[in-house]
Amino acid sequence: MRKLSFCLSTILLLTGLAYADQLPLPAQVRASARLLTLPVKLALLYPRQPDEKLIVPVAGVRVREIGNSWHAPRAGGRLHEGQDIFAKRGTAVYSATDGYVVRVGENTLGGHTVWVMGAGGRSYYYAHLDAYAPNLAVGDHVTPQTVLGYVGTTGNAIGTPPHLHFGVYTSAGAVDPRPLLTDRP
Ligand SMILES: [Zn+2]
Fold first, then answer.
1. Which of 18, 37, 134, 143 lies at a 20 to 30 A Cα distance from 28?
2. What would the mean pLDDT of 60-89 be, rounded to a whole number?
3. Ligand 1 centre and the CA of 85: distance in Å?
4. CB 20 within 8 Å of CB 28
5. 132 pLDDT band (50/70/90 cuts)?
6. Nearest to 118 by CA among 91, 92, 152, 146
7. Are 101 and 116 in contact (CB under 8 A)?
8. Closest by alpha carbon to 134, among 120, 144, 143, 146?
9. CA of 82 relative to ligand 1 center, distance in Å
10. Nearest CA-CA partner of 178 in 170, 164, 162, 167
11. If you average pLDDT over residues 60-88, what whole number do you get?
12. C-alpha distances in angstroms, 109 versus 17, 127, 170?
């Protein structure tokens, strides 16, 4: 009986946490609840069918305007594992899919970057951002209407025309996002 009530209260607690970010709780409580439940939410993404269409993540850019830079040669014998989407500095960068923010941070090549995990456990990489959207945080649920940041030239894009580097990764490695891209309505 004691075991049962323990199980029940655990389930109640987890359910409460899962919905905590929709309740009128203090921002810090909601943020902690989002982080605590993130592993469960990510685990639930894996069995889902990966998105067949990715909405162009840069505001005002059509698919036909995106030059193909997939596997273009890069310094050090690397191949370009993504697509560069050019736009004016400061143009809004949206999530291309539904998903959860799993990382917000700086790295040498990418500069200001955001990682989003979507259905099927696919990862979406947004790099060279000029800045992040205000209050963007790990654990946030995002949709193609969510602004992640703004087009820039951070990381190894310094000195190039402003663009978003958009990468898509599966457990088997990088895949070309271009054939999956569709115009933003
Ligand atoms: Zn790039």
1. 143
2. 95
3. 8
4. no
5. very high
6. 146
7. yes
8. 146
9. 6
10. 167
11. 95
12. 36, 9, 20
Chain centre distance of CA 28: 22
CA of 41 to the centre of ligand 1 (A): 29
Residue 61 contacts residue 87 (beta carbons within 8 Å): yes
What single letter denotes the amino acid at residue 50?
P
Active-site residue, selected from the candidate residues 112, 128, 163, 165: 163
Residue 25 — very low, low, confident or very high, per pLDDT cuts 50/70/90? Answer: confident
Q: Write out the two tokens for 152.
A: 């820039």
Which residues have CB atoms below 5 A from the ion given as ligand 1?
84, 165
Active site residue 71: no
pTM for the whole structure = 0.88
Q: Map out the domains of the chain with their CATH numbers.
A: 2-45 (no CATH), 54-182 (2.70.70.10)
